[in-house]
Amino acid sequence: MNKEKAIIVGVELPKDKENFQSSMTELENLADTAGAEVVGKITQRLEKPNLKYFIGEGKLIELKNKADDMGVDLIIFDNDIHASQQRNLEEFLGKKIINRTELILDIFAQHAHSHEGRLQVELAQNQFMLTRLTGKGITLSRLGGGIGTRGPGETKLEQDRRKIRARISRLKKELEKISKSRSVRKNFRIKSGIISASIVGYTNAGKSTLLNALTKSSVLTENKLFATLDTFTRKLYLEKDKFILLSDTVGFIQNLPHQLIEAFKATLDEVASADFLIHVVDLSSSDMERQIDAVYNVLEEIEAISKPMITVFNKVDLLNKPLDKSLLEKYYPSVVVSAAKKTGLEELKKTIMTCLLPRQLA
Ligand SMILES: Nc1nc2c(ncn2[C@@H]2O[C@H](COP(=O)(O)OP(=O)(O)OP(=O)(O)O)[C@@H](O)[C@H]2O)c(=O)[nH]1
Ligand SMILES: [Mg+2]
Predict the structure, then answer these.
(1) Which of 10, 103, 159, 271 is most exposed by smallest CB count within 10 Å?
(2) End-to-end CA gap in the chain
(3) Which residues have any ligand 1 atom within 6 Å of their CB?
(4) What SS3 class is residue 218?
(5) In the prediction, which pLDDT does 224 show?
């Protein structure tokens, strides 16, 4: 399949100063995960966005020349550009324009496999569309194919607000049904006294690899963002005949679109109802502490921040400098592992036993 050629664009506003570079790098990874070939990058520092095009008019011309020269199909903005700016850009550049939220929605659409996952993605897409529908109709980017237009929402894009609202309410009802059967199962689990833990963490930190290593399962792991969207639960034996339930779920990211948090509420409820959390952190990432904060922000949003938590520093095999021991205290209780090389796993199990399990195990 031919990859869509893309240019990524970011405007550094005063509020973005700290995270700007990492956000752009992440946007490039997201574009790559969605299946685009990033052939150029344009950035600009502005006090405030240009009202008509978001970027300044000089930059706009630079962008047009670059996009035309390189035969680019797609331009991806890191910023939350307004629907009218998106339309103006499309008219001027003659290219498909999408923003970070649409890119993430596209990846979710490509990776959602379960019935519930697909419903949740469709809900998020419809909610996003509502914010994009303006009096002048659908923008150019909704009409072509490819990145930003895929997924269950695609054929509904021409529908008007009322139809979208009706669809949203149907989707919510369907999701509620699924969530009821989930809570029946949850109540059963609580009554039977089985302890459950949720693996949380930044996308690509190695959550699924850890679940597989601990429970000898084979959940798909990939060097891609958002490889996992559905929740998988497995038994983890801590001792002979003593187990807890361990769940792996969707990864987090900085600026996770609010529509996605809303739509993935059912999936995230699984996290909120767990007895404790296992937070997997990628030790080899140069952005580690920023990723930790991004995870805390999402946990706060889903009201799971005060749960007992073990921090698992993963990918220690990739670390090419000595481990900063102060991290272990700062994030106590914590363990250093390599899920891929299966090191540190016994210590992790012991930490779970001693720190978090005064209660009777099943
Ligand atoms: N070297 C090394 N690579 C690892 C380790 N753990 C995971 N990986 C790799 O990191 C990548 C991401 O791993 P996953 O387990 O899919 O990560 P995840 O957190 O489940 O990611 P999402 O589901 O996409 O959010 C894969 O290529 C893994 O092989 C580790 O301990 N060492
Ligand atoms: Mg995963």
Answers:
(1) 159
(2) 50
(3) 201, 203-209, 221-228, 251, 314-315, 317-318, 338-340
(4) coil
(5) 79
Q: Which CATH number fits domain 4-156: 3.40.50.10490, 3.30.300.30, 2.30.30.140, 3.40.50.11060?
A: 3.40.50.11060
Tell me, in angstroms, the distance from the centre of ligand 1 to residue 340's CA: 8
The pair phi, psi for residue 42, each rounded to 5°, is -125, 130
The residue with greater pLDDT, 154 or 104, is: 104
pLDDT in tens, 228-283: 877 888 999 988 888 899 999 888 887 777 778 888 877 788 898 899 999 999 99
Please say if the pLDDT value at position 98 is more than 90.
Answer: yes
CATH 3.40.50.300 is right for the domain spanning 193-356: yes
CA dist., res. 308 & res. 314, Å (int):
19
How long a stretch of residues is the chain?
362
For ligand 2, the distance from its centroid to the CA atom of residue 225, given in whole angstroms, is 8
Q: Give the integer Cα–Cα distance in Å for 82 and 125.
A: 16
Ligand 1 atom closest to 338 (CA):
31
Reading phi first (left if > 0) and then psi (alpha if -120 to 50, else beta), residue 173 is in: alpha
Long-range contacts of 54-63 (CB under 8 A, 24+ apart): 54/11, 54/79, 54/81, 54/82, 54/85, 54/89, 55/9, 55/11, 60/89, 60/92, 60/93, 63/7, 63/9, 63/93
Which residue's C-alpha comes closest to atom 27 of ligand 1? 223
